[in-house]
Amino acid sequence: MPSLHCAVASAGAPTARADGGSSGVGLGHGFEGVVVPRIAEPPVLAATVVQPELLPDLRRAFHVAAALGALVQLVPPAGAGVGYFLSHWSMIRAMMTTLRVLLAEALGTFFLCFAGIAAILCTAPPISAGGGLVAIALAHGLALSIAVSNFGGISGAHFNPAVTLSMLVTRRIAAPLAGLYIVAQLLGATIAAMTCREVFPPEAVGAAMLGLPLPAAWATTGTVFCVEFVLTFLLVTSIFGVAVDERGKTVKIGGFAIGLTVAFDILAAGPVTGASMNPARSFGPALVMGHWEWHWMYWVAPILGGCAASLFYHHVLLVSPDEPPVPVREELADRGRR
Predict the structure, then answer these.
(1) What is the dihedral sign for C-alpha 12, 17, 22, 26?
(2) What share of the chain has pLDDT > 90, as a percent?
(3) Residue 291 lies in a domain
(4) How many angstroms separate the CA atoms of 121 and 229, rounded?
(5) In a domain, 2, yes or no
(6) Who's near 160: CB < 8 A, 6+ residues apart?
(7) Are the beta carbons of 277 and 134 closer than 8 angstroms?
(8) What are the C-alpha distances in Å from 190 to residues 210, 275, 276?
(9) Residue pLDDT, tens place only, 149-178
(10) Average pLDDT estimate for 26-37
């Protein structure tokens, strides 16, 4: 399975303006944000409270070009002493912030893929631990929920290239940073697949193809595309509902909402396509096993489904900054009192 973001994606972290602008980014928890002007490439969903002394560094922290330029500048000249490094300390901290974000994406994707692959291998002979589809769905869903809760405040918790690209098309992340996110996600998924291959018996690895999401024998190309598109559409819609939309953030269960979406997607369609919803989840086992049949479909369908969901939510369901919020909770309370 699965993903994300995504998750893809839920504890509060840098939030871009709803109109897609990039003149600033709000940092903080809930509705109390500090605006940091002129951040060229804000991270996606929202971020944890940033220490005040680090705010100036964030101008470069998520700017890929600046980070790469800083790396070149940090190569010390011959005979450089301690003073050279002290004079570049601000640049070093900025680079470390970017590195922490990418490590969070890789580790969160590892959470998801390791738990999911391991659960599948545990149901295969000679282990045959039982649990079947329910155990596999719960493993993916719980792992994603925990990863989102752990790392959402650092990177926005995408853990899924489809989620990252859905943020890209709604201008919540810049293209260079999105590329680095995807590389980190693929790396985390590959390490998870390699770890499972080494830990589990070769018989189980071969019988389950290392947990690689694959379609049923009767599934056609159209079936695979339609199912993966719909599953990822539902997943990204949940991510936007609880991690991007300010109204959804007030519920404060974003991580579990996203994880449970993955779980019910697997329960609904796992036997049909493997319910990947996540190109990284498919990439890791495919690379380790060298099995690329159908692989292109597990990139195209989730990415298109995720982008469709993000554009729909952004342009149809998301409240404009100029539009007053509807007092839903107050109306429900009044009805209850009647």
Answers:
(1) negative
(2) 58
(3) yes
(4) 26
(5) no
(6) 2, 3, 4, 5, 6, 7, 8, 109, 185, 277, 278, 279, 280, 281, 302, 306
(7) no
(8) 11, 18, 15
(9) 999 989 999 999 999 999 999 999 989 889
(10) 32
In a domain, 134, yes or no: yes
Cβ atoms of 111 and 143 within 8 Å: the answer is yes
CATH of residue 152's domain is 1.20.1080.10
The token pair at 207 is 């019988």
- The enclosing H or E element of 28 equals strand 24-29
Instruction: Answer yes or no: is 74 within a domain.
Output: yes
List % helix, strand, coil for the chain (3-state, nearest 5). Answer: 65, 5, 30
Q: Stretch 307-318: mean pLDDT, rounded?
A: 95
Six-digit token string for 261: 């979406």
DSSP for 204-244, written as a single string: HHHHTGGG-----TT--HHHHHHHHHHHHHHHHHHHIIIII
Here the tokens at position 173 are 């992340």
17: tokens are 């303006």
Tokens of 193: 């697949």
> Domain range spanning residue 196?
24-320
What pLDDT is stored for residue 253 in this prediction? Answer: 80
How far apart CA 105 and CA 160 sit, in angstroms, is: 9
Side-chain half-sphere CA neighbours of 123 within 13 A: 18
What pLDDT, on a 0 to 100 scale, did the predictor assign at position 326?
54
pTM for the full model?
Answer: 0.72
The answer to whether 34 and 54 have CB atoms below 8 angstroms apart is: no
- Cα separation, 1 vs 19, in Å, equals 32
Question: What's the number of domains the chain is made of?
Answer: 1
What's the mean pLDDT when you consider all of the chain? 78
